[in-house]
Amino acid sequence: MLTDSEKKRYGRQILMEEIREGGQEKLKSACILVAGAGGIGSTVLNCLAAAGIGRIRILDCDTVEMSNLNRQILHWQKDIGRKKADSASEKLQALNPDIDVEVMHATISRDNILDLASGVDGVVDAMDNMPARYILNEAAVKMHIPFFHGAVHGFEGRAMTVLPGKTACLRCLYRGPVEREIFPVLGTAPAMIGAIQACEVIKYLVGAGRLLTDRMLTIDGLTMTASEFKIHRNPNCEHCASPR
Amino acid sequence: MSIDIAIHKTHRQFAGGAERVSVEGKTVGQCLDRLIQQYPQMKAILFDRKGRIKNTIEIYVNMESAYPDELKKPVKNGDVIHIALMLAGG
Fold this sequence. Notes:
A: alpha/beta; 8 helices; 8 strands; 33% helix; globular; B: alpha+beta; 5-stranded mixed beta sheet
């Protein structure tokens, strides 16, 4: 049940026929893991907290650096040197004290991810490297929970939603290992992609609209064009192919 | 018989600045060969030393993923091949 205060706080989205009070209650009872509290994660977390996702689990092992501040909008000058998960949690609780925010300082590995993601209804991929993204993807597939992928570079970003067992997963496109890089990026790219991922999470939880499944949406801020590429499930995918 | 190859913006500097290059070919592999004939620097962009497509490159034909076996994928007049770049940043 929503409290009077919650009905007031979320009143504008409760007006939406896709949400109403029933949808808002679904958001309130949901638990979402956001892996990465950097550029993409900042916007995802802000949107999900404001929308009233009842439990948000922030997973990040890094500390805030000066070079993060051009895009990681949950972290401010005063936060330099703090754990990103702590910095993000403080802002989210100040924005919305009605939700629960869990903090996990951990480096994602295949050994710990099932514990870190235990009990969540969905995983948001807001990482900054492919190996960690694949670990998250594999865990989501194993746990049969949705996986919301997003990535950026420069002015550009992309997003895709995975429903394990039903739609193509991130690994379906896997060709081989990719080296970690220091990537160029303008803050507008993770802001756009993070908002798309948060929208996907909310749509999934309330059961509304058409998810970004089996299609990769790319946005190029430089030309302000969006493209949609169709993705097929790979019958030989290491993560989501059915055992034979 | 003309196939358009859409070049990702990070690669255009190696393709004379072109956003699209028209080539002829019956497969994605033949089309990429023609592209490299025109712009030899694209070879090192697209392929590793063993001649395999680099792990960071994605190939789409008419907005559909051509993975796996992209190079063997048949194409026809009017098709568009997109060369996209896997993004990893967050």
